[in-house]
Fold this protein.
Amino acid sequence: MLGRRGTLRFLVTPPVAWLALFFIVPLALIAAFSLRAGSGAVGPDEPWLASVDQYAELAGTPAFLRLLGLSVLVAIGVAVLATLLAYPIAYFLAFRAGRRASLYLTLLLVPFAVSYLLRVMAWKLMLGPEGGVNSLLSFLGLTDEPIQLLLYSRPAVIITLVYVWIPFAALPIYAAMQRIDRHQLEAAADLGAGPWSRFWRVTVPLSLPGALVTFFMVFIPTVGEYVTPALVGGTDGIMYGNIIQGFFTRSANWPLGSAMAMTMLVLTLAVVLVGLRAVNLRRVLS
Amino acid sequence: MTAIGVGRTRVPLRTFYVGMLVLLYLPIAVLFIFSFGTGTTLSFPLSGLTLDWYAEVLDNGAMIDAARNSLVVGVAAATTATAIGCLVAVAVLRFRFRGRGLLLALAGLPLVVPFVVMGVAFFLLFVTVDLPRSLVTVAIGHSVIGVPYATLIVLARLSGLDPALEDAAMDLGATYPSALRRVVVPLMAPTLLSAWLTCFIVSFDEIALAIFLVGGDPTFPVFLYGQLRFAQRLPVLIAMAVLLMLGTVALTLIALRIRGRDD
């Protein structure tokens, strides 16, 4: 007979084993590869010479550091824009949509179920030199030759990513707003607070944890982006992630690529830890 | 529910919401139109309408294979991730033990690592253990990124399930594992399905990690990405993607509906 306590072992062992082998060990391998000398596709068979050369090279290459900084800025920009645009949507769903809220929420989430790659492609089809917008303009006789729209630039990357994230961004904010006790708003009204004052002094503070969750849920995937920049960014729009990916494919340099990935990992975890201090995430999620 | 008997701000929230919806659906509508047009670029007026691209989808063996690969990977990854998520959720909610918080953090951590970093990590792991990259390695990678989603979805529902039900089953002579299997699992079945569907959709659409992990057999997003260079193939690719989109949208609606009913 297997009692409660005896079962715990069987509950805990598989997840810990799986995640140790396929999550912790791989991340530790990045650290290991980043701390070895050499360049190129250095396999595990080659002698492992401990060195901090890779980090020295990373720190000594302004282009890499600039791109890392830019990627962080792009990720912050995308996360802030997505949060700001999703906030009124979440507010509408939580406070104005009434009984139809779940229908409106579903309508919002359907585009998120459409393949990410497909949605990025759609922007490319519309904005390109031979794209839909240009063709429509010349058909209507408004332009003589294709105008260079936003495609293949950093703004194109930002617009596309904001577009991709908006539906998802509304979710944590909406969840936080749903938990706001309506009596608090009534109490504020009874005490003479007008609509704007209630919004700024009750709704905003109480929904802030949700907005912060949104920020991080968009920031983390965006800071490591390389697919969208490759598709709509062109040479001017590439991000730090593109360099990392390049070092594991075309121009193989595994140790340097590992150092760059490690730097991104540490940076991301640091940002998340700061965020966790700002908002008690466990309380928000429960 | 918002029967506050006082004034509201006059911000046109509904208009904003509708405007955003239009913006969100517009590019998707454009793809739809494009897939029925005869041209290989999006030009107005459309030169003609055709179903040829959809017919060509059926003849494109490599593309069908890629879609099938994605299906296989998605099923394997979703099943593994949901199983792990369940185990973590039961352990964390039904037991007090040392390292409980750590286990929860471990299950949630894949959510805060950018995919490009995960890609590098898995790449180095499979190089080190000399496991050739294939659909198996993609499925392993996708199982890990599914764990946080599965854990959170199962946790949310299990926390609302009275532990007394398990106690009652055990009073009646069930072992704890069989109480879980015969009482908790049936009660949680819709939630497990919803978690599974969520993990499946995440895997089916994932590309940034998959690019690092595929061998000769691509998943559909990787295949699509590789073919985008060839402009004349674009309409067929979009037609196939539109077909798959109908599938993932349907699955998402089912998952949402199940979770909505749970609340």
About this structure: Residues 62-96 of chain A form the longest helix (35 residues). The domain at 64-285 of chain A is CATH 1.10.3720.10 (MetI-like fold). Residues 19 and 25 of chain A are 8 Å apart (CA to CA).
